[in-house]
Amino acid sequence: MTSRGDSGIIVEPVARLIEELGKLPGIGPKTASRLTFFLLRAEEGQSRTLAQAILDMRERVTFCTRCFNITVGDLCLICQSQSRDQSKICVVEEPLDVLAIERTGSYRGLYHVLHGHIAPLEGIYREDLKIDQLLARVRSEPVDEIILAMNPNTEGEATAFLLLRDLAPLGVRVTRPARGLPTGGDLEWADPDTLSSAMEGRREL
Ligand SMILES: [Zn+2]
User: Fold this and answer.
1) Cα 107–Cα 82–Cα 78 angle in degrees, nearest 5
2) Which end of the chain, C or N, has fewer beta carbons within 10 A?
3) Residues 35, 14: contact at Cβ < 8 Å?
4) Is the CATH number of domain 66-204 3.40.50.300?
5) Which residues crowd ion ligand 1, with CB under 5 Å?
6) How far apart are CA 123 and CA 15, in angstroms?
């Protein structure tokens, strides 16, 4: 966001880009200004490429019809892969968590992305998440282990508890990554080594 004081001295197209960049997570007004002035100095082609990359991402990327990870087309690259262990499904909150776990290189099973966590105070309930789709997969796919890799915080715990209750009647083994992930944080920020050993040391619920 630009302050009111800037509006008189910065021309509208520049002020507008600063404002838009400032809406992105982790980008404050100073960084937004720096990025804008960098693009202003750089070759025009760079702005064009960036703008096109953003549009392409929005237009072409959708969610996998099986696991709800990001994809271009019907199934994501992980679901398409012949080398993944089809008997394990790691349940995560967001597509970014898939990336975090993939970065460890130590997990070879499949995923299921819930697209959020239970948070009644924020108006996010069970039916807002891809939980029924997960249960349908457990019934129809050759799954023998579900790994609940929610974020190690209150909402993550509540979501895991609910999933455990839903999964119990299906007779599938349910595990959670070992403790050791920084509590209160997000999976995506855990360092790969910690995440890797948490995944390897998972315990049965
Ligand atoms: Zn998929």
Assistant:
1) 50
2) N
3) no
4) no
5) 64, 66-67, 69, 76, 79
6) 34
CATH of domain 4-60: 1.10.8.420
User: What is the distance, to the nearest Å, from the Cα of residue 185 to the centroid of all Cα atoms in its chain?
Assistant: 14
> Could you tell me the distance, in angstroms and rounded to a whole number, from the CA of residue 57 to the centre of ligand 1?
18
Structure tokens at 134: 């997960």
How far away, in angstroms, is 74 Cα from ligand 1 center?
A: 8
> How far, in Å, from the CA of 79 to the mean position of ligand 1?
4
| Per-residue confidence in pLDDT tens, the chain, 205 aa | 444 555 578 899 999 999 999 999 999 999 999 999 999 999 999 999 999 999 999 999 999 999 999 999 999 999 999 999 999 999 999 999 999 999 989 899 999 999 999 998 889 999 999 999 999 999 999 999 999 999 888 899 999 999 999 999 999 999 998 776 666 667 777 778 888 888 887 888 7
- What's the gap in Å between 63 CA and the centre of ligand 1? 8
